[in-house]
Design a protein that fits this description.
This protein has helices spanning about 10-15, 20-35, 45-55, 60-85, 90-95, 100-115, 115-125, 135-140, 145-165; strands spanning about 5, 170-175. It has about 180 residues and is mainly alpha-helical. The chain has one domain (about 5-175). Strands 1-2 form a two-stranded parallel sheet.
């Protein structure tokens, strides 16, 4: 079974990942991903793609994962404050926000049931990553708590992706 294909990465992005601006490009992409605005590639491909194109030595791996965690946390924090200030309806009306009202209601339920810890848990999960940012932003959740839980969840997600890339390279096809 093939989980990810490097072919899904746009060629212009691939060339930027192999340039001297690679870490800056990765940082920008991660901010977009955290803010739920990454539309040109699957978020699950960001760290494995960076490891494949930038390098996967221990220093490079640590740097890539750190950049990904900081970038996605910044993006989610921007979304958290946007939702807090502008409200749920504002976000749902925006074309860049990829979630329907009914799907968001399901995430409201998760947040109501599990509380703030759901932020970290959802950040670790494929396909729901970051979606608890909206209910968290609408709640009385402390911003510092949100940032910490967002970063913890992002760290676990990025480490899982890096581990899959390093330990199970057969799951990825690069070409």
């Amino acid at each position: 079974m093939v989980l990810l294909q490097l072919e899904e990465m746009p060629s212009w992005l691939e060339s930027m990942f192999t340039s001297e601006l690679a870490f800056l490009v990765l940082f920008g992409i991660c901010i977009l991903e955290g803010a739920m605005m990454l539309r040109f590639m699957p978020s699950e491909l960001v760290v494995p793609g960076a490891l494949a194109l930038i390098g996967s030595s221990v220093p490079e791996l640590v740097t890539i994962v750190a950049i990904a965690v900081v970038g996605t946390t910044i993006g989610q924090t921007v979304l958290f404050f946007l939702v807090r200030r502008a409200g749920r309806e504002y976000v749902l009306q925006k074309r860049w926000f990829p979630v329907t009202e009914s799907r968001l209601e399901r995430f409201d339920g998760w947040f109501d049931r599990w509380g703030a810890i759901a932020v970290a848990g959802s950040n670790t999960m494929l396909f729901v990553r970051g979606l608890l940012t909206v209910p968290a932003g609408l709640s009385e959740m402390n911003a510092r708590s949100f940032v910490a839980l967002s970063a913890i969840g992002s760290l676990s997600f990025q480490l899982i992706l890096a581990g899959l890339y390093l330990l199970g390279g057969h799951l990825l096809i690069f070409g």
